[in-house]
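Task card 7
Instruction: Convert sequence to structure tokens.
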Amino acid sequence: MSVRSRRKAKKMKTRMFLVALIATMGISTMVFTSCKSKKQAIQQPYQTQPKPGVVEDEFVEPPCTMYDDDNVFVGSSSAYGSAAQEAVIRRAALTNAQNIARQKMKHAYQGMVSDYFNLIGNNAGNTARSNIEGAGDQIIDIIVNDTKEKCIRRSKTTDAKGNITYYIGIEIDKKAAADKISDALSKDDELDIRFQEYNYREKMKEKFKEYKEEQKK
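Output:
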């Protein structure tokens, strides 16, 4: 083979090598681009805004939701359980509502007792204050335990587990409660306190009436 032929063959091999190299690089670029696109698609952030046509959840107030006012303490609650134990579920809802009202009344009563002792002076002693708080709490328990349902609702159907929900609301008249507590304390000869019935009764009615306002602060 002549020198000229060898040079021509060498150039042909070089050209074929370059063509193959360029083709290989092109395929690699396409694969890399494809993988990058897939990776970017996976890393896209979650949407924070609802898609058009999607209805957002609406929250409604539970049945028998009630609020304190000048005249009443209220308690509202619910209980959930097997429909086969309906009477038990209803009683549990009532007890829950009563406990809420009880807590409100005792809180207001303790505040009233504190105000009353500040009014008459500390010379009455801690024993007197403890006695009158304990006696009042016992009467509050009696008042609350005697309450009946003011509002009652029951789920129409059972859920997938065969359970139902009861909603109960109760009311306790503030003035009547204050009078009942004062009447009982005024007849208790064992209370170690300079008990001024009229002042005590009026102070309690005032404190009970204001309780709802304290809850909003």
